[in-house]
Amino acid sequence: MIDFLEGMIHEKTPACVVVNVNGVGYEVIIPLSTYDVLPPEGGRVHLLIHDYVREDAHVLYGFAAKRERDFFRLIQGVSGIGPKTALGAISSMSVRELRRCIADRDSKRLSKLPGIGKKTAERIVLELHDKIDPLETMAADDSPPLGDKYRDAVLALTALGNTQEAAVRLVHAISQSSNPPETTEEIIKQALASR
Questions:
Q1: Please, what's the b/e burial string for 54-66 (b: 16 or more CB within 10 A of its CB; e: otherwise)?
Q2: Residue 15 and which of 128, 146, 189, 192 are 20 to 30 A apart at CA?
Q3: Hey, how many other C-beta atoms are within 10 angstroms of the C-beta on 73?
């Protein structure tokens, strides 16, 4: 199995790149997010690879970021999702947004992705919801870094009877306020007051 390729970009398109590794050209299928960060042709590149082998095909899928390859592999675990559909999802929406949709059980938004209808979107949410940590999703957001006080607040709110999703949403909103609380206790008080 090939884990990564490092070499010179011989040719690139939004869907595929040919990487010259010591005189051997490897065709690698890529998502748009990877294409956006590729250097120009002739530049050096390091791509993480998912090596897909079937009786009739041997296809390399390449990713600039580990989180993209990890999510690509995760979503293929859902029945009915193959590599083309998984790649289409990552090309249409960032991994952070995809994880957020699953954590929020937003199958309606997922159903708008290419190759994913209503039933498949519901299956993705059902099969992956427990595998997506809402705290990691929150930490990966474009919001202030998730510190211990926010994690502790989520745990406390969950212990007080909130679902984890609701607790994460409350704490996330508070962490983005113009004057975020300084302590875990203040976060919990604000969250309880806002319910």
A1: eeeeeebbbbbee
A2: 128
A3: 14
What span, in angstroms and rounded, lies between the C-alpha atoms of 164 and 133?
Answer: 9
Contact 123, 79 (CB under 8 A): yes
- What tens digit of pLDDT does each residue of 17-43 get? 999 999 999 999 999 889 888 999 999
Beta 24-29 vs 44-54: how paired, if at all? unpaired
Please tell me the total count of domains within the chain. 3
| CB 50, CB 61: distance < 8 Å | yes
How far is Cα 131 from Cα 134, in angstroms, rounded to an integer?
9
Cα(187)–Cα(20) distance, integer angstroms:
53
Determine if the pTM surpasses 0.70. no
Q: Which residue has the tokens 């909130």?
A: 162
By C-alpha distance, which of 153, 120, 154 is closest to 134?
154
Q: Residue 162 corresponds to which tokens in the numbers above?
A: 């909130």
The Cα–Cα gap between 123 and 155 comes to 28
Nearest Cα to Cα of residue 38 among 5, 67, 82, 60: 5
44-54 and 16-21 strand pairing: unpaired
Domain containing 23 equals: 4-63
Other C-beta atoms closer than 10 Å to the C-beta of 189 total 14
114 and 156: one domain?
Answer: no
**pLDDT at residue 137 greater than cutoff 70:** no
